[in-house]
Design goal:
This protein is mainly α. It has one domain. The protein is 70% helix and 0% strand. The protein has five helices and no strands. The longest helix is centred in the middle third of the chain and has 58 residues. The chain is globular, with a radius of gyration of 25 Å. The N terminus is likely disordered.
């Protein structure tokens, strides 16, 4: 190919900007991160599952040390990290749930480990139970709010929150019952609902992981229908 004056054409390349050497993402300093909901769901499932197993009597009360370790370990830490990741992605629902329940599990574990005995000695059984009932009432309200909000997401998200609300409500009733036989029955029933709740939360976490790995819906989440 020649130019109009007969001289060979000189090919000129358009300058291309070099690729950035740092990862790109939605923020200026950090790359985009994976969602934190699966980790939060699994951490919650481990904690409420261990609680349910103990409350049903499937394990002896002497095994409550494992519950405390679960609350302070994978329960609170997993939910804390998952909540931070959700906030990082701009997800208010998942972030607030993750960090909120991380605080709940951590505080509950610390109470049973260090403060239950002194409170029992100073205030007696009834007052200690009433303190715990008030604590669980507050978290039942918190959980109920998220059960309502989850209706706009998916049925698979509604189930864990709804079951957790039932667990907390039954636990509150058992705390008010003191040493009566019916209080023990309510606590055992709460344990069975806790196991169901663990399965529901575990399903949510597993579905999110498996569906992401296969890039298609393997485990349905039953998402909410868009509002017209």
């Amino acid at each position: 190919m020649t130019t109009q004056d007969g001289n060979p054409a000189v090919a000129t390349a358009t300058p291309v900007a070099p690729a950035p050497s740092f990862p790109t993402g939605s923020g200026h300093f950090f790359p985009a991160t994976a969602p934190g909901v699966p980790l939060s769901a699994f951490a919650f499932a481990f904690a409420v599952g261990m609680l349910g197993i103990l409350d049903t009597g499937m394990l002896p009360a002497a095994a409550d040390g494992m519950l405390i370790a679960t609350l302070l370990g994978i329960g609170s830490i997993g939910l804390f990290i998952g909540g931070l990741w959700e906030y990082r992605a701009g997800e208010l629902f998942g972030g607030t749930f993750g960090l909120g329940y991380a605080g709940f599990l951590f505080s509950t574990g610390i109470f049973y480990k260090f403060f239950y005995g002194p409170l029992f000695t100073a205030a007696g059984l009834n007052n200690t139970n009433h303190v715990l009932a008030a604590w669980f009432i507050m978290w039942a309200i918190f959980t109920g709010i998220f059960a309502i909000g989850a209706r706009t997401i998916a049925l698979a998200a509604v189930a864990p929150f709804t079951l957790a609300f039932v667990v907390l409500l039954l636990t509150v009733i058992s705390e008010f019952g003191g040493t009566s036989s019916w209080a023990a029955d309510f606590l055992k029933t709460a344990g069975w609902f806790g196991i169901l709740d663990s399965l529901a939360a575990g399903y949510l976490g597993a579905a999110l992981v498996i569906n992401t790995c296969y890039a298609r819906t393997i485990c349905p989440l039953f998402p909410a229908k868009p509002r017209g």
